[in-house]
Amino acid sequence: MKKESTGNTHGGPLAADSSGNVNPHLFEQMLDASGVAMAIRDSRLSPLFANQAFRDFYGHTLEYILTTPKEVALPADTISLYSDDIQPAMAAGLTWEGTYDIRTLAGETRKVWGRFTPVLDDDAALTHVISIMRDATDFERMRKTLTQTERHFSFLAENPSDCLFRVRLSNGRCDYISPAIESITGYRPQEFYDTPKLFRRLFPDAWRGTIGQWWQELRQGISRYDYELPLIHRDGTRKWVHQRIKVIFDDQGDPVAVEGIITNITDRHKTEEALAAARKSLNFISNSTSDIFFRLRIPEGTYDYLSPSVERFSGYTMEEYEADPRLIKNIFHPDWKGYFQETWGELLRGEVRPVYEFQFIHKSGEIRWASQRVVLHKDEHGNPIAIEGIATDITERRMAEEAARESESRFRALFEEAPISLWEEDLTDLKAYFDELKDRGIANFRQFFYDNPDALAHCAGLVKVVDVNKATLDLLGARDKDELFGNLEKVLTESSMAAFTEEMILLASGGCEYCGEITHRTLDGETIWVMVHFFVPPEYADSLSRVIVSLLDVTPRKKAEEALMDSEERYRILAENSREGVIVVQGEEVKYINERMSEIIERDIRELDRATLIKAIHPEDRDRVLSQLEGLLSGSRNEAFASLRAVTSRGATRWLTLTARPIMWDGNEARLEILTDVTHHKTLETELLRAHAEMEDRIRKRTAELSEANVRLKAVAEERGKAQERILSLTQQLIRIQEDERQRISRDLHDNVAQDLSSIMLKMETLFDDQGDVNNELRGRRKNVTDILHKAIASVRDIAYGLRPPALEQLGLAGALKNLCKDVASKHSCNVDFFATGIEDIPMDFDAEINIYRMIQEAVRNITRHAEATRATIRMVASHPDILIRIEDNGCGFDLNRRLEQAVREKRMGVRSMEERSRLVGGTLEIQSLPGTGTRVLFKIPIETARRRD
Q1: How far apart are alpha carbons 531 and 516 in whole angstroms?
Q2: How far is residue 740's CA from residue 734's CA, in Å, rounded to a whole number?
Q3: 8 Å CB contact between 178 and 203
Q4: Residues 6 or more apart whose Cβ sits within 8 Å of residue 325
Q5: Which one of 342, 427, 768, 900 has the lowest number of neighbouring Cβ atoms within 10 Å?
Q6: What one-character DSSP code corresponds to residue 844?
């Protein structure tokens, strides 16, 4: 309280009109415009006028303030203060200021600071009183803080973890050392008092020289302030401590003592050693691979780390990268500058792609390809600060891919545009079926298939047609491939099945090539004759996963043959005009040969006889062809088909297909041999196979490269996973230490500070019990102090319970949360409905319990502070395999992204803390909110991670 003399107070010129008279309306506007709560009162302190700021304090209208008696509007203590202190001061013409209570519209008592100034007339008589007031909460908080600071100093001196000390520089004796020294060194404080320089005996021999140097510096008045060193515990173990030391000087400026704090940092030092080992492992990996490991700062674009392989990778040394921060931008290929700017912008916004692939220019000028995988790091506000990653030279891989694409494109172009019908088939399932039959002991497949026609039908169902070309669609009258594949059963005829049987016998017996003539039916129903050539490339002989089938339309020729059966003359005419070579052999004598045959083998038709024709067959094919013709002559076969090579008179090789069947010639049996030149077909087939082989070879090489890259990436991923696990473990330890520290502070606040305050309050309440005559002013002051102590005790207990809720250990998680919700509902105008089921049946780890409690506590705190909600609902259900927590309110809601950005700017970490705690217990957090629709917070925590491990 403060009192001072004051003279007469008169209205200023702003309160008067042009004639000098007071303008009440203007005066009211002036007061309302002021942000200070002001009131004009009569001599009995009853309000005559109150400005808007004053009315806002109370929450009442001006009419209510002016008409309501003080006994209704003010607490009893304030009314006593008015009559006992303030009114006498006003009557004496003195200003009064101090704190007192008011009652708001909501019925709450509010502490305010006020100043009352008297207004006297010319005769020094009191006419009015002007009062101003402001909120006294900050003042009260500061006073409580100052009161508690003295307690805290004593508390810190007895802190069980940090040791406070004072040592004389003259002789090394301890003037003071706190009890915490025993937990750090194993020696009691008294042993340090009794044994000067005991500290020196605790340091390892290797450190004695350094300790001696530091001691000499301190005796000269020089302190490095921070010291980190090892010492030997009484039990023989090595500890690491951190000392903060300040030199104390006497009045002459000479150093006389040192004071400081000793902190046990053994756990932190072990953690740092583990991290150093991890870094050493990472350096070993980065130095042993051709890939680059790097760390790049954002937004500077400079490297914090580059592995030595960068020079082999790009041609530039690490020194060149350090000297030129823009080098990373300059090595990008000009065509990829836009890509660089786009991806860099994404990183600045916190967006990361799974992989980055681009071209860069090696220092030698060579254009190369690189692939990068990165991890983005952010600061505590969510802002990107760096990326860490690995870069791999993929030039060979990209070249192989490009070559494979070219081979595939070339193969596809040849395949699609070939003038003959080509089919690509996959017979893998058929090969498995053949192997199964062989395992059952079947060796004679010809007999087996003739005895088991159902087996042939099964084989037909195992044939997979992979692709066909355009010539196939034209041959069979299909609009597209889908139409053809959906109607394949319409294509086959009975004669087709005979050829299919021979194919199956051939494949099952290990053969790889078949040639024959069969009939097919177009989708329009027309029957056509085709020469089928079936070929398995050598590299697919074991799996039959790729088979090439070609069809050549021989319908015109077959029609000619049928026509010539009726008329040899007509046959001769058609044969002469046929595109195939035609030979009629009777016995060993050639009866007829057409001009086309002469053209095919490039010999004069007059020179052609049986011996010459046989000699024209390639030596490697001659025995096979003659064997098939002998079968026709013996009557064991109705037709003979063969694929053979013929050598022309000029030494050139032509590929031919031979079809032979018996006919009647001049009334006697003869043999008709038709040879078709398929050299172009075979050349195309060879080209296709070569292109396919090249493609397969490149694919195999690419697969091997990808396998090696995958192994490397897997190793890096495992190393990063271990690093993430270590980081998570460290975070868990930090939060556990934080909770332990909260428990210790909570216990000391409750057991020491609150008890001391209670003792003081008890003494204050009984202060005048033995005094007979004590004036009212002293009793009022005693009451004020007692009230303050009551509130201080309540505040200390609230802080203690907030730091470590005792209900968590006494009632369990569900009971503690129920108490939390009741407490929030009692202090705020928000009804919190809490319900939990199934939680009691789960023995939970205490770390999981405290993290869940803190998450819900933070969510409820946000509702009471920001949501303006009148109702909140909390549901916690144990539903295997998760614990589900849903928190909803009917508040004003918010824009989540905008709120997170605002929290970063204002350095508020509530939501981030909830996310981190949910991650530590293996859970997830989801927040759903829109302005005007309330907010929903969802936690999902696996039961297994929360369960207590016995």
Answers
A1: 6
A2: 10
A3: no
A4: 300, 301, 302
A5: 342
A6: B
Query: Cα-atom radius of gyration of the chain, to the nearest Å?
Result: 50
Helical ranges in 766-845 per DSSP H: 776-803, 807-810, 812-827
Rounded to whole angstroms, how far apart are CA atoms 279 and 723? 9
Which pLDDT score, from 0 to 100, does residue 521 have? 86
* Tokens 């396998």 -> residue: 707
Strands across the sheet containing 226-232 = 174-177, 162-168, 255-264, 238-249, 226-232
Name the residue type at position 124. A
Q: Which helix (H) or strand (E) holds 584?
A: strand 581-586
Strand 94-103, strand 109-120: pairing: antiparallel
Which residues sit opposite 357 in a β-bridge?
371
CB 138 within 8 A of CB 42: no
Q: Is the bond preceding residue 881 a cis peptide, omega within 30 degrees?
A: yes
Is the bond leading into 47 cis (omega within 30 degrees of zero)?
no
Read off φ and ψ for residue 642, nearest 5 degrees: -155, 145
Burial of 676 (0-12, 13-18, 19+ CB in 10 A): buried
Q: At what angle do helices 846-862 and 812-827 cross, to 10 degrees?
A: 20
| Cβ(46)–Cβ(68) below 8 Å | no
Query: What is the three-class DSSP state of 415?
Result: helix
C-beta atoms surrounding 334 within 10 Å: 8
The Cα 449–Cα 505 span in angstroms is: 8
Count of CA atoms in the C-beta half-sphere (13 A) of 628: 19
How far is 144 from 308, CA to CA, in rounded Å?
Answer: 59
pLDDT of 860 over the 80 cut = yes
pLDDT of res. 622: 82
b/e per residue 630-650 (b: at least 16 CB within 10 A): eebeeeebeebbbbbbbbeee
Give, in order, the Cα–Cα distances in Å from 60 to each of 4, 56, 73.
Answer: 31, 7, 10
Rounded Cα–Cα distance for residues 375 and 382 (Å): 14
Per-residue model confidence as pLDDT tens digits over 271-301: 777 766 656 665 565 555 667 778 888 888 8
**Burial (CB count within 10 angstroms: exposed 0-12, middle 13-18, buried 19+), residue 656:** buried
Distance CA 639, CA 632 (A): 6
| Burial class for 494, CB neighbours closer than 10 Å (0-12, 13-18, 19+) | exposed
Q: Which two tokens stand for residue 847?
A: 């770390």
Long-range contacts of 316-323 (CB under 8 A, 24+ apart): 316/363
Amino acid in position 219: R
3-state DSSP assignment of residue 549: strand
Q: Any bridge partners for residue 421, and if so which?
A: 551
573 pLDDT tier (thresholds 50, 70, 90)? low
What's the DSSP call for residue 16? B
What percent of the chain is predicted at pLDDT more than 90? 4
pLDDT in tens, 440-457: 888 888 888 888 888 888
Q: Bridge partners of 39?
A: 50, 131
SS3 assignment, position 285? helix
Mean pLDDT of the chain: 79
Mean pLDDT over residues 735-757, rounded?
68
Distance CA 316, CA 183 (A): 54
Range name among 376-390, 631-645, 703-717 with the lowest pLDDT average: 631-645
Q: What sign does the CA torsion over 846, 849, 850, 851 have?
A: positive
pLDDT class for 116, splitting at 50, 70, 90? very high
